[in-house]
């Protein structure tokens, strides 16, 4: 009975709109089958070459870079609910269309279209959390949402892999269904609130704010994103060092497990002070962790490296959202969040290209030294 009371008290600490976002996010992430398995689908089912697959996957980063920058002003003008519903319903339609795409060009266009629409969601959702919360509660809310995202991210690829053995097209339909269900949930249950009106029209016309601190934070976010997104090339490093695909999966599983176990307690600890220095600590741990991969030659050493950068990821995530949500005026909050989010999209686009070039120039030499 006491446990039920504690849960009820915890739930009532956040407004209804936040829990609509939380449950909708969990539902959507549990059904996010297509993006994690897109490379496999393009290779095994669409029979495209490595270069073609790389270009198509880069469309995800390109779409996010463009769309997140546009999502912020749209959110400031029309509100988070409108933008999130547009992103989810449009993304659902594009995923269905993508399931029928044939050939390289149509598939690339479909992936780009999907990314352009679905990526509108993130800045709007972050703005919604900032509108619904304040003070230390805001940081805790971001971390609760982050935890739900990662529970889904850890589960969806496993479930998707099982479903793919029955029908690859089924993955597209179920993914679209969860996006549509979330859009319906927002339409029916998310509270509509007016955006701050003071000077809103004048500020909305200023798509690129003249705020030096904002652009410094954007640059820092780009550097952070370039480091974080390099994990996508870890598979190549593991192959060069002679590890198996199963061992690679075991190492990456450390990330998901630690986020689920430590995400909430670390987030609540950070929320007590909410000091921006946490962001610097998170970035430092991320860098140290990825440096660890450059020095690691055993499975346990790679696992330790993942553990270090995962803690950095957890620390940086919630506090960075809080910082950017409070950096600009409330009526321009979406624009600020969207510009920072677009840096993550640019990092998603650039990191595989930069890491691939570095591995091509330096990775082979390292492998040669290891094998000699």
What does this molecule look like?
This protein has helices at 2-12, 16-30, 38-45, 50-78, 80-98, 103-118, 121-132, 136-164, 168-189, 200-204, 212-228, 234-240, 245-273, 277-295, 299-327, 333-371. The protein contains 16 helices and no strands. The longest helix is centred in the C-terminal third of the chain and has 39 residues, at 333-371. The protein has 372 residues and is mostly helical. The protein starts with a helix and ends with a helix. 44% of the residues are buried. α15 (299-327) packs antiparallel against α16.
Span from first to last CA? Answer: 65 Å
> Topology as H/E string?
HHHHHHHHHHHHHHHH
Mean pLDDT equals: 84
Question: How can the largest sheet be summarized?
Answer: none
What's the quick description here?
By secondary structure, the chain is an all-alpha fold. The chain has helices at 2-12, 16-30, 38-45, 50-78, 80-98, 103-118, 121-132, 136-164, 168-189, 200-204, 212-228, 234-240, 245-273, 277-295, 299-327, 333-371.
